[in-house]
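Hypothesis: this fold can be encoded by more than one sequence.
Test: take the C-alpha cells below, design a sequence, compare later.
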C-alpha cells in the first residue's frame, strides 16, 4: 500500500506539465485523483494514464476562475470518489507586460486564476471539511488533510514584467499562512511551493522575435522565454538547468505525504539553488 492509499486528491491544471506530473505522482502512491484542465483531451489523457497505473481518476474540466468552479470540483471529489483529503491549487498561466502597458483585463485575468480561484476552491472545501471532521471525531479517527498552493519565485522576489503574476503569487502565500492558522484545528496542513524556472510549455524557448501562444477562453496569450534569457538563467542556477515537471511534482508530494504532518504554513522554494 502507498502512503496515500484511501486519499482523494484534487489537482487543478493537471492535464499537462507540472500538474499532470503531480497527479501521476500522487496516484502512484495510492491517491484517487480529480483531474482538471480547460480542455477535455489533456484531462482525458491524464485520467487514462492513472487508470493504466491501476489507479482511480475522474475529470472535472473547465475554467478554475469560473464563479461556480470551486463548488463543482469539490463536489466531484466527494460525490464520485468519496471524499477530499488533498487539494493542490496548480492551474494557471502567465500574461506578461510592463505595468504601463498592462491592461485591466490582464491584471484581473491573472489574479482571478492564481488567487481568486484557489480562494473559491478552498472556501468550498471547508464546507465538506467541517462535516467530515465532525464524523471522524465521533468515530475516534484523526485524519490529516493537505493543501498545497503553487506559488512562484516571482511571488517571493518579484519579477520585471509580471506585476499581475507576482502580485497573485505573493497573495497565495498570504492565503496559505492564514489558512494554516484557521484550519489547524481541523488537522489540515496548508503549505506552498514556489517554483523557479521549470521546463514546461509556458517556458519553452523562443526564437528572437517569435511569440508562441496558448488559447485561454478565447484569448490568445503569448508564452515562452527568449533563448538568451534561458541561457542566462541556466548560468545562475547552481544545478545548471531548469527543473523538470516530474521534479517539481516531487516537491509537492513532500507536502502531501504523511511525512509532513507537522509542517504547516511554510513555503518551499524550488529553484535549483538559485
Amino acid at each position: 500500500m502507498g502512503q496515500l492509499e484511501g486519499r482523494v486528491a484534487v489537482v487543478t491544471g493537471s492535464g499537462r506539465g507540472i500538474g499532470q506530473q503531480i497527479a501521476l505522482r500522487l496516484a502512484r502512491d495510492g491517491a484517487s485523483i480529480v483531474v482538471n484542465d480547460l480542455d477535455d483531451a489533456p484531462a482525458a489523457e491524464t485520467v487514462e494514464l492513472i487508470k493504466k497505473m491501476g489507479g482511480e481518476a475522474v475529470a472535472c474540466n473547465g475554467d478554475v476562475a469560473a464563479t461556480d468552479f470551486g463548488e463543482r470540483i469539490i463536489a466531484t471529489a466527494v460525490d464520485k470518489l468519496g471524499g477530499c483529503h488533498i487539494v493542490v491549487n496548480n492551474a494557471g498561466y502567465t500574461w506578461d507586460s510592463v505595468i504601463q502597458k498592462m491592461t485591466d483585463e490582464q491584471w484581473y485575468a491573472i489574479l482571478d486564476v492564481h488567487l481568486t480561484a484557489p480562494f473559491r476552491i478552498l472556501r468550498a472545501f471547508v464546507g465538506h471539511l467541517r462535516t467530515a471532521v465532525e464524523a471522524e471525531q465521533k468515530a475516534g479517527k484523526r485524519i490529516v488533510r493537505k493543501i498545497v498552493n503553487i506559488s512562484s519565485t516571482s511571488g517571493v522576489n518579484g519579477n520585471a514584467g509580471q506585476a499581475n503574476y507576482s502580485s497573485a503569487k505573493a497573495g497565495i502565500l498570504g492565503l496559505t499562512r492564514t489558512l494554516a492558522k484557521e484550519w489547524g484545528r481541523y488537522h489540515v496542513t496548508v503549505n506552498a511551493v514556489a517554483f523557479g524556472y521549470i521546463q514546461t510549455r509556458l517556458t519553452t524557448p523562443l526564437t528572437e522575435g517569435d511569440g508562441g501562444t496558448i488559447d485561454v477562453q478565447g484569448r490568445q496569450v503569448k508564452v515562452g522565454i527568449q533563448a538568451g534569457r534561458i541561457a542566462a538563467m541556466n548560468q545562475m542556477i547552481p544545478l545548471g538547468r531548469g527543473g523538470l515537471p516530474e521534479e517539481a511534482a516531487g516537491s509537492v508530494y513532500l507536502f502531501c505525504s504523511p511525512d509532513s504532518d507537522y509542517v504547516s504554513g511554510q513555503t518551499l522554494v524550488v529553484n535549483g539553488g538559485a
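The first helix runs from residue 17 to 28. The domain at 8-198+246-270 is CATH 3.40.50.720 (Rossmann fold).
Hypothesis status: open.
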